[in-house]
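Bench log, entry 3. Co-assembly request; chain sequences pasted below exactly as received.
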Amino acid sequence: MLSKKIEKLLNEQVQLESESSLYYLAMASWAETKGLNGVSGFLYGQSDEERVHMLKLFHFINERGGHAVVGGSKSPRTQYKNVKEVFEEVLKHELGVTSEINKLVDACLKEKDYTTHNFLQWYVTEQMEEEKQALTILDKLALLGDDKSGLYLFDRDMAAMAPAPVNAPDAGK
Ligand code: OFO
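Structure output for the full assembly:
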C-alpha cells in the first residue's frame, strides 16, 4: 500500500514522463520538417517510450492502492537552431529527469517503502542508458562539425538507432 507522500511523488513523476513524451514529440516534428527522417524516427520512438514509462507508473500506482492522475502540460519548445541543439536539450532534460528519479528513490528509503524502491530501479537503469545514449549522439555530432554530407550519414545512423515501435496492446504493463 502506498503512503500518500509516495503516491504524490509518483504522480509527479507521471507528469514528468508525460511531459518527456510531448517534449520528444515536438522535437521529432521539428526534425521531420527539416527532412531529417532518421532523427525524427528516433525521436518519435523516444516519445513512445516515454509514454510507456508513464504507463508503467500508472499501473504501479493503481495496483498499490493509489490513484494515478495526469494533469495538463505546458507546450514544449518547437524550434531549434540545429540537430546539435536538439541533442544538447535531450541531455539536459534527461539529467533533470535522473535527478527527480534519484529524489524519489531517496524518499522511498526514508519512508521505508522498499517495494516502490525496488520498482524504481528499472527507471534508474533506464536513465543511465538514456544519458549514455545522448552523450554518444553528441560525440558523433562533435566529430561531424559543419560537414553537410556527414549530416546525411548521421541521419541514416539515427534511423538504425530508433527504438522498436510500441504497439502491443499491453504496452507499459
Ligand atoms: Fe522516462 O526515460 Fe528519460 O525521461
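DSSP finds five helices and no strands in the chain. The mean pLDDT is 93.
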